[in-house]
Specification:
The chain is of the alpha+beta class. It has one domain. The protein contains three helices and six strands. Strands 1, 2, 3, 4, 5 and 6 form a six-stranded antiparallel beta sheet that branches. A hairpin with a 2-residue loop joins strand 1 (41-45) and strand 2 (48-56). The two termini are 20 Å apart.
Length: 143
């Protein structure tokens, strides 16, 4: 990912941390035929509590959602975008996809990623140094 801005860097860091945690906890593999454990899971990211959830998608993709400083709600109970998601879920919300068929990499939708964050923690999350474990942090987006 070349010279990302603070929001894009924070989005990337949250999803890379969530995917790394899901891999470490055995909830997913990088094998496109492997079905994920879709139960929400907790982990620590940049010294903050976080909750992630993965879903199996078509063509071997996984969707991933990560919330930092989560409130005690289930990830699927909230709808909407931006500030509404933050009020419902926690201090930061990021969502994206892991491509596993044509390569192993994180992808986002065209334009802006699915992301909301409180300004107070954005510098902490954007400054984290985290390397992807077995996958790349960017790649081609497929419809």
């Amino acid at each position: 990912m070349s010279a990302p801005n603070g929001r894009l860097k924070a989005w990337r860091n949250m999803l890379v941390a969530g995917l790394n945690a899901a891999l470490a906890q055995g909830r997913i593999t990088l094998d496109e035929d492997n079905e994920p454990d879709e139960t929400p899971f907790d982990f620590t990211f940049a010294g903050l509590p976080a909750r992630g959830r993965v879903h199996g998608m078509t063509y071997g993709e996984l969707s991933i959602t990560v919330v930092v400083n989560p409130k005690p709600t289930h990830l699927t109970l909230c709808a909407g975008e931006g500030d509404h998601l933050l009020r419902c879920l926690g201090d930061a919300y990021a969502s994206g996809w892991l491509e596993r068929r044509t390569g192993k990499y994180l992808q986002r939708t065209f334009g802006r990623p699915l992301f909301a964050i409180r300004n107070g923690i954005k510098p902490i999350i954007a400054a984290a140094h985290i390397a992807p474990n077995g996958f790349a942090d960017s790649g081609k987006f497929f419809l």
